[in-house]
Amino acid sequence: MKEVTINKKGENYTAVDIGSLNEINKYIYNHPLAGDMNGKVFVGEKLDTTSMEISVQVLPAGKEIPFDHRHKTHEEVYIVLKGKGQFIIDGEIVDLKEGSFVRIAPDAKRRWRNNSNEDLTMMVIQAVSGTLQSHTIKDGYV
Ligand code: ZN
Question: Cα–Cα distance between 140 and 142 in angstroms, integer?
Answer without folding.
Answer: 7
